[in-house]
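Posting for a labmate who doesn't have an account.
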Amino acid sequence: MKQLIAKVKDRSKIDYYKLLSDKIIYDCNISGFQRVNYEPDHNLDEDSWFKVDKFSEQGYCIELLKKEFISAEYNEIPADMFLKIAYLCAVQDDNYFIQKITPSLFATRKILSFGENVKLEEDHRRLFINKEPDAVYIKSEDILIFKNLATISSIFKGIDELYKEATKEEVSEFLEESFIELNDGYGVDRVSKPNRKRVALAMSTLAAMSAPDRSNIFTYINSYCYEKLKFDSENQKFEISSDEELKYLLYGIEQRFYTTMLGQEKRLANSIQSLD
């Protein structure tokens, strides 16, 4: 089964329409995609996608993906609905390929048509389809894969909860930890949005650590960041006076620093993926 349908932005009861049948829109080998759990700091490789398991059980899963797809339930799209398309969904067997539609993907062109005579065709409307979809729902596995959370958040309302930031109260609680000493007026109101996300992760990581593990992680951080962070080893405190310094402390708690086996070069991992 191959169907291309469109979700339109309209207040009527009908919000999905049929566009094409029996056409392969996305020729993707999704079985070859590497799938990783969503992390905002993770830089995806070219063949990697973020994933959400048990997607149909999530509150932000759309009804289209939960029910059985029956082509006969969808009418052909009226001409006046074309510019109201919000996203496309190519149903190809058990896979649903979804692409968000933005105004930049619509084009109205004057086109020269060559046949027996040259003709100028006015008001030639087109909608561009990207080479890759923005998301794929694999129904047989109940998994959604995607590359950019912001792109699909208008389709799956509420999915941005995956990007969990620490609340102001949680950030304040973290900055009051015994191993942090704030200086130069740095405080909760100056913590950036990316660092609020990292704080949420760090709090979970620290909660699972024993006291000896905490001491060891502080030694580890100091061994890599002694030029960027001031550490009082006697009192086990890091001096934090900027968002940049907080970022390095948070990276250290997540053990993002490593040394290459050959050359002994110290590096920061921009993204991590468990091999277990």
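Reply:
Got it, the structure tokens are right above this. The two ends are 37 Å apart (CA to CA).
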